[in-house]
């Protein structure tokens, strides 16, 4: 319990509005709940949310210590009272989340609070599986990333050992990730493997495709298989043998079959005609294909997980 004494400059404010200013990390819905549960009191008595505070009043706040911290990027998850997650699978070591298109995985220049990692941390905090005050260094973390406008399965580690193992398995290509995408045009041949070099332009946040080694270029290997073609649109399953920025988007565009809805590498006139503003790309299936020891994650060997639905597949190929 902590106490706050109301000074002259704070007198006249409503209880709920004063507390929300004093504790900016406390979500408004949780603040109202704490008032109802009598975890916020005035002069030892029950507080009303619209009660006007007087100079000299003493607030008793029965609230977790972390809500008294100053807002920082690493504690903004506390403000998410109702985390929104589509959980594909969860156990004591990890979570598989179906990230919706439009959601960023980590904070960037456009979004600090509504991120996938913040929703994960808020969820685990509210389940009392994790609290930053219990840990010296570890924070639940993502093992892989997906672009803002791409949807699909993301792996989150609940402990340091799981994070270490999954990161190593990704590097060793022992986790099979499959994507679905819709291209404008049908690739020729309908099935194949493409090797190229991708050079990233940090200012444009875009990559260029080369078919010869270039300084700074990274090898990119992509396998694809055409599942169906209807008119000018084709549904493909894609496997990444390397994990490069915008690999599928840039590679398919270079083949002359850009992704539907892709604003960077696609055809704007076609995208507008179909009314699509996000690339039709989804990480829809993941398999823990462990040929080597996986330590405490050996129980996942051979297990495969898939999202229930991919919106653009149902829309155009349902």
UniProtKB/TrEMBL annotation:
Q: Which GO terms describe its molecular function?
A: catalytic activity, acting on RNA; pseudouridine synthase activity; RNA binding
Q: Where is the Pseudouridine synthase RsuA/RluA-like domain?
A: 93-253
**Does the keyword section mention RNA-binding?**
yes
CDD domains named in the record: PseudoU_synth_RluA_like (cd02869), S4 (cd00165)
In the UniProt record, the signal sequence range is none
Q: What is its EC number?
A: 5.4.99.-
Residues forming the catalytic site = 147
Question: What is the recorded function of this protein according to its Swiss-Prot or TrEMBL entry?
Answer: Responsible for synthesis of pseudouridine from uracil.
Which NCBIfam families did the record assign?
A: rluA_subfam (TIGR00005)
GO terms, biological process:
pseudouridine synthesis; RNA processing
Against Pfam families, the record matches this protein to:
PseudoU_synth_2
InterPro entries, alphabetized? PsdUridine_synth_cat_dom_sf, PsdUridine_synth_RluC/D, PsdUridine_synth_RsuA/RluA, RluA_PseudoU_synthase, S4_RNA-bd_sf
**Which keywords fit this entry according to its UniProt record?**
Isomerase, RNA-binding
Q: Record's SUPFAM superfamilies?
A: Alpha-L RNA-binding motif (SSF55174), Pseudouridine synthase (SSF55120)
Q: What broad class of enzyme is this?
A: isomerase
Its recorded reaction(s) are: a uridine in RNA = a pseudouridine in RNA
Taxonomically, the superkingdom here is Bacteria
**What is the recorded name of this protein?**
Pseudouridine synthase
Would you identify the family this protein belongs to, as annotated?
Belongs to the pseudouridine synthase RluA family.
Where does this protein come from, organism-wise?
A: Vescimonas coprocola
């Amino acid at each position: 319990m902590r106490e706050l004494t109301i000074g002259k400059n704070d007198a006249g404010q409503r209880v709920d509005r004063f507390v929300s200013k004093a504790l900016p990390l406390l979500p408004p819905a949780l603040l109202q709940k704490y008032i109802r549960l009598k975890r916020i009191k005035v002069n030892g008595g029950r507080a009303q949310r619209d009660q006007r505070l007087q100079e000299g009043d003493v607030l008793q706040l029965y609230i977790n210590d972390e809500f008294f911290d100053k807002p920082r990027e690493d504690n903004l998850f506390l403000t998410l009272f109702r985390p929104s997650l589509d959980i594909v699978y969860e156990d004591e070591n990890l979570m598989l989340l179906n990230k919706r298109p439009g959601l960023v995985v980590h904070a960037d220049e456009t979004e600090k609070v509504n991120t996938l990692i913040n929703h994960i941390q808020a969820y685990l905090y509210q389940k009392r599986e994790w609290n930053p005050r219990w840990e010296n260094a570890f924070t639940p973390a993502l093992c892989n990333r997906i672009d803002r406008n791409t949807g699909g399965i993301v792996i989150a580690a609940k402990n340091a050992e799981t994070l270490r193992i999954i990161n190593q398995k990704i590097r060793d290509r022992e986790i099979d990730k499959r994507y679905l995408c819709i291209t404008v045009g049908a690739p020729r041949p309908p099935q194949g493997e493409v090797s190229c070099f991708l050079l990233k332009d940090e200012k444009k946040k875009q990559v260029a495709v080369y078919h010869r080694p270039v300084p700074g270029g990274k090898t990119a290997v992509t396998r694809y298989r055409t599942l169906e073609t209807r008119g000018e649109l084709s549904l493909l399953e894609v496997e990444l043998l390397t994990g490069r920025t915008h690999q599928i988007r840039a590679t398919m565009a270079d083949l002359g079959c850009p992704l539907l809805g892709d604003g960077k590498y696609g055809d704007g006139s076609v995208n507008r005609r179909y009314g699509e503003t996000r690339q039709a790309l989804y990480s829809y299936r993941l398999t823990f294909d462990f040929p080597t020891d996986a330590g405490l994650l050996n129980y996942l060997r051979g297990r495969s997980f898939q999202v229930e639905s991919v919106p653009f597949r149902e829309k155009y190929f349902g």
